[in-house]
Amino acid sequence: MGAGEEAIGGRRLTKVVIVKDVWKSYGKVEVVKGVSFDVEEGTTTIIFGPSGAGKSTLLRCINMLHQPERGTVFLRDIDLMKAGDKINYYRSKFGMVFQHFNLFNHMTVLENVMIGPRVVKKIPGDQAKRIALEALEKVRMKDWCNHYPSQLSGGQKQRVGIARALAMDPEVILFDEPTSALDPELIGEVLQTMLDLAKEKKTMICVTHEMGFARAVASEMIFMDEGTVVERGSPEHFFTNPVNERTKKFLSRLTELYGHHESRSEVADEK
Amino acid sequence: MVCVVQSIHNDWKGPLLPSLLDVLSSQFTFIIEGLPITLSLTAYGLGLGFLIGLPLAILRVYGGRGGRQFVAAYERVMRSVPPLVLIFLFYFGIQTTVFEIPGFLAVTLALGLCSSGYQSQIFRGALESIGSGQMDAARSLGMSKLQAIRLVMAPQALRFALPSWANELATMIKDTSLAFVVGVAELMRRADYVRAATFDPVIPFLVVASIYFLIVFPITRIAGTWGREKKRLVAGV
Amino acid sequence: MIDYLGILLEGLLVTFELSFMALGIGVILGLAAALARTYDHGPVSYLANAYIELIRGTPLTVQLFIIYFGLPSLGLLFSPTFSAIVTLGINSGAYQAEYFRGAIESIGGGQMEAALSVGMSRPQAIARIILPQALRLALPSWSNEAAYLPKYSSVAFLVTVPELLAKAKVVIAENLKPLEVYLVVGLIYLVTIASLSKILDVVYERYKFTVE
Q1: For A1-93+203-271, which CATH class?
Q2: How far A6 CA sits from the closest chain B CA (Å)?
Q3: Domain C2-208 in CATH: superfamily?
Q4: Is the CB of residue B19 less than 8 Å away from at least one CB of chain C?
Q5: Which residues, other chains included, contact C73 with Cβ-Cβ below 8 Å and sequence gap of 6+?
Q6: Residues of B with Cβ-Cβ distance to A102 under 8 angstroms
Q7: Rounded Cα–Cα distance for residues C180 and C183 (Å)
Q8: Using CB atoms, which residue from A94, A106, A119 is nearest to B156?
Q9: For residue A7, what is the DSSP state?
Q10: FRET pair for B42, CA 20 to 30 Å: which of A216, B35, B96, B209?
Q11: Within an 8 Å CB–CB cutoff, is residue C39 touching chain B?
């Protein structure tokens, strides 16, 4: 058995990502302070918490866009801090979806989704195109493949962003507040796409405050504040009886502001 | 004197009474023959500035502390030294030490270096405007920094830099007028020659001013339109 | 090298004279043009625009020669230095006009409305409310133009003004070391402009806090 696997009662659980005591600072400010957790294959992990809590930074440490000062991240049994020049290769095993979409503005939708497979995985053009079209089909954006990002709505852009990540056939998909920059009526289409992915048992780590979504698909939820993990557990745990004071305060504030959350993703479920 | 100029260029058999229009047209013909030289000076100078400026901008944005400081200093120097000084430096400096340098080359080097300082700034601004999110997205797909720069950042930066770059083009066209101090037969030199030949102190320069204006003005107008359009686009994103 | 530094510094003084005077003229012309462009909607604005576009659309050298050779033919006999100052001033004014106009337009109609509603006349509003704010806003980019004026002044050499570059030529005629002398001259310009920038930055920093 590899480092990422353990047997529990005959059922093998594979840990795809292990975050081990990660510390990250910007200059003198410590943003992530000793965070550890693991992610099992086929599950959705939700990270939530107040802004400035270090969640985005943590996510970027997982795929090594930022290098932690201390600690490490394992992708299955590979220590990413020790990857050296293979780091780009391993990074391509993660998909990432950004709050501000970050689509390549000078390329069409199709080119955006194709470029990863073509340039990074060195897949020949025709095949890459097929893969891209498949991914776009999945997010229901295939008809827009010759449009430019500037011609799309926010929700459409984000779905293309998801397709771009999917085209690389990643082991894990990282979502950094994928719906926070969207107008309310556009959030549903993106959440629906994410729900579909969760149903297909893709391994996902999401930073979000969409609690309805979390309730529907999360197998684990992690509450972060001020750079540390304050509390973690199943969704039931959080929504019925959270332990920590800070957690309780944050959750109650959230439901105050976003009370209509649940209704929105329930509607999405019905689709 | 005017008759001499006329007969050279108009094949007239004998001295004719020059009307103002004839004076202007012959002067104009002579002067405008300098236009190709002005334009090629512009092209070479701008090209050199680009070849140096773009890599420097990339170095400054992505190259870490040493790169940042070096490029910052370089930009400073190239923007502070007057182009005339650089022209003389290359022309007379090299002539007496290394080899006989043609004026055209000296001017190209001088203006090219000056421009590289400004172009470095322009592209740096463009790269920074595009934002780190694009770089993050490219790298999250597994691209190396170099790939990301080549495929994602630079193409967008070039488009973004276009209005400012167009201004730099206009500036370069005007700066080529300095080439006349080292004998390059571009627009300005020819205008001065006509002045010396005709003792006409002003009209040649008015003529050459019009020529410059007719070239430069459309460029700055287009640059302005692009700039306003860009502002609109950026705000909309 | 030390021996000719003195001669060069004499030239530097003339450079300063050129720059300072040109800057002054430029401020007046630039401000006037900017105000005309923003607040006038008739021929004056058109004239100001023509001034700005014509000056910015032609090389400084051409402008210099037109004035240097042109003034005498109008019967006005002035020193080369005077011609240079006039040209540099007119030239600088056109560029400064754009900085000022940007700043004035940024201050915005809201301020004008407020001033008028209190009962001020338009000129009063401009002088007391808009301009003070606009000038402070324009200070950084204006400082840029101001600091670089010595660099532009080097063209005055072409019309026999005894400024820095001209003195350099004199020195070289003597010691026949163009490479060395031009490098030194370049350095002098660099230091001069850097110092001016720094001084203006410091002034801006201190002045900034008195604004609010």
Answers
A1: alpha beta
A2: 29
A3: MetI-like (1.10.3720.10)
A4: no
A5: B201, B202
A6: 133-134, 136-137
A7: 5
A8: A106
A9: E
A10: B96
A11: no
